[in-house]
Amino acid sequence: MVVSVTATTTTPTVSVTAYDQGIYLSNNDGTYKFSATPEAAARQICADYGIPISSAVSTGITIRRKFSAVSLWDILCTMYAKAGEQNGKRYMARFGDAAWRSWSERPARRTW
Fold first, then answer.
1. Residue 21 carries which DSSP code?
2. Which parts of the chain fold into alpha helices (H)?
3. Spatial distance between the Cα atoms of 56 and 51, rounded to a whole number of angstroms
4. How many distinct helices (H) and strands (E) make up the chain?
5. Considering just the CA atoms, what is the radius of gyration of the chain in Å?
6. Per-residue confidence in pLDDT tens, the chain, 112 aa
7. pLDDT at 66
8. Which of 79, 78, 24, 68 lies closest to 46 in space, CA to CA?
9. Distances (CA, A) of 69 to 27, 28, 61, 66, 72
10. Are 51 and 28 in contact (CB under 8 A)?
């Protein structure tokens, strides 16, 4: 979403500031006590804050953790990182259209 557009008469330049749905995750803090999979936590947090979510990769790992006044982004990063520690997979967030596409499994690192 575009949040500001600035044009000047002295130069042929237009500055545009735009954010994806992640701005809502990073600018809001939450307090949660989870005993759930990261994908269930993502769906709950997004429902609580009215953030559209279109998909969440299944980790199959239940994480037990408390969060007090922590950014929603940090909560979700922690949940998926903890699952990754247990199953050896890496996850990354994806955003698109008007919905958060949630986490997907990150491709393996390439070595050249």
1. T
2. 22-26, 38-49, 72-87
3. 13
4. 3, 6
5. 17
6. 555 566 667 777 888 777 777 788 889 999 999 999 999 999 999 899 888 887 888 899 999 999 999 999 999 999 999 999 999 988 888 777 665 555 666 666 656 5
7. 98
8. 24
9. 12, 9, 24, 10, 9
10. no
Which tokens in the block code for residue 10?
């002295």
Q: 15 is written with which tokens? A: 């500055």
Beta bridge partners of residue 95, listed in sequence order = 100
Q: Distance from first CA to last CA of the chain, Å, rounded?
A: 37
Residue whose tokens read 């922590």: 70
User: Considering the entire predicted model, what is its pTM?
Assistant: 0.76
| Tokens of residue 62, six digits | 């239940």
Q: Quote the tokens at residue 22.
A: 């992640």
Tokens of 96: 């698109």
**CA–CA gap between residue 69 and residue 74 (Å, rounded):** 10
Rounded Cα distance between 19 and 39, Å, is: 23
Residues 6+ apart with CB under 8 A from 28: 49, 71, 72
